[in-house]
Amino acid sequence: MADLRCPSCGSAYPGEERFCPDCRLPLVHDAEGEGVIETVGERHERARKIKPQLTEGRLVRVAGARNQAEAEFIQGLLLEEGVPSLLRRSAGFDVPDFLAAGPRDVLVPEAGLATAREVLLEGELISGETPAQVVTPARLLVGLVAALAIGALVVWVLSLLVG
Hints:
Elements: E1 4-5, E2 12-13, E3 28-29, H1 42-49, E4 59-65, H2 68-80, E5 86-89, E6 104-109, H3 113-122, H4 137-162
């Protein structure tokens, strides 16, 4: 079988190996035994940095950035640690006239959340406190209906006492 090499450290492995034990990156076929690995492009290089075990689960917000440049900086930090991420324009700032302006949310898969928080805490890009819990629409509706019912009950009792 053909020899395989790690694209990161360049170590050679037999054909039955699939991942580098040191870097945990997928091995690639050696280019004619020269130890030179041709890279396809920037997207290919970025994809090879992602650790497969950190790609599972639904996307969750890990950080917020004031603009696109800051968000891409955070995304680069996460990629260096193998955490895949996605940028999304924050709610309420999706004006088409200013596509590059406005705050961004940085989203990561649930499996990479702990690693991402650790990286961002090291870089002092987020605080150590747990993020505030977002209220779901159903829970908000139940709270509003309960408050309305209590208000109606108070008005009814007061109307009985006065009348």
